[in-house]
Design goal:
Keywords: Cell membrane, Membrane, Transmembrane, Transmembrane helix. By secondary structure, the protein is an alpha+beta fold. It is built from 11 helices and 4 strands, in the order H-H-H-H-H-H-H-H-H-E-H-E-E-H-E.
Length: about 280
């Protein structure tokens, strides 16, 4: 338990540093306010010259108070470490990091990549950085609206406000690109690349196909009963998960046994268990 806690702290800390680097090197110097508390803090930084990290911390205080009130102590304090360290890191790293580019397209892309990788790590290791995640969770207790929809509305409001304050529609457009890149990287870090494929196989010869998969690929398969809605015929559906390099071979195995098999092939982002990766 203690080792897992240490791993989570290290993972969240690494994620916080990457996020701060994305903000300090690319987004903040180029006035790209890509939603969230960091976006609001960026706007305030240029309006009243307040440090971005300090502004983020101040903005998160009422959110934490509301979260503790509406959602309980455990939820509020679970986010405390990530929020504090991110606020401190954003301000502490400013004098140490270069600003590699003022090209807005490069800034929004590379900033989105770093922030997405960072937040992905934070979420993967069971942390949060507070901000609009907390706000959306709080609002949901009042409205019941989906958290994803609320986050989108909050981020859109910040982006539109930034475009108005900075008098630049282009900055708002680049901020939207950053939001999409960040969201994609967050999912990628948590789900992983698709290195495996799942086969759903509907055939009149499931037992023979299963045996061929075991013999030919040394892989397993799971069978469950199903019924065709149009034909009313009872059949077995097979599920088999293989590595990308085994896809062509499995297709050959299936269609050598049953040329009329119905096959669905889908991406699988992560497989845990025998023959694949163990959960750690």
């Amino acid at each position: 338990m203690r080792l897992k806690f240490i791993q989570e702290i290290i993972g969240v800390s690494a994620g916080v540093i990457l996020t701060a680097m994305g903000l300090d090197m690319f987004l903040i110097p180029n006035k790209i306010a890509a939603g969230g508390v960091s976006g609001i803090a960026t706007i305030l930084h240029y309006l009243i010259n307040v440090p971005v990290g300090a502004a983020m911390l101040v903005l998160n205080v009422p959110l934490f108070a509301a979260a503790i009130y509406r959602l309980g102590l455990q939820f509020g304090f679970r986010s405390l470490y990530g929020t504090l360290t991110l606020s401190l890191a954003v301000d502490a790293l400013v004098p140490l990091l270069p600003v590699p580019t003022h090209d807005l397209l490069l800034a929004c892309l590379f900033g989105g990549v770093l922030v997405g990788l960072g937040l992905g790590l934070v979420f993967k290791y069971n942390g949060t950085t507070g901000g609009t995640d907390l706000l959306a969770a709080i609002l949901r207790t009042y409205t019941g609206v989906n958290i994803g929809q609320l986050l989108f509305l909050v981020d859109a409001t910040v982006v539109i406000t930034a475009g108005y304050v900075f008098e630049s529609a282009e900055l708002s457009m680049y901020a939207l690109i950053t939001i999409f890149v960040t969201a994609w990287l967050i999912d990628l870090v948590q789900e992983g690349f698709s290195y495996t494929k799942a086969f759903l196989i509907i055939s009149n010869r499931p037992a023979e196909i299963s045996a061929a998969i075991v013999e030919g690929l040394n892989r397993g398969a799971t069978a469950w009963p199903a019924r065709g809605v149009y034909t009313g015929v009872d059949k077995e559906v097979l599920l088999s998960v293989v590595n990308r390099s085994e896809v062509s071979r499995l297709k050959e195995i299936i269609y050598q046994v049953d040329p009329h098999a119905f096959v669905i092939l889908a991406d699988v982002h992560e497989v845990l268990g025998e023959g694949f990766k163990e959960y750690k």
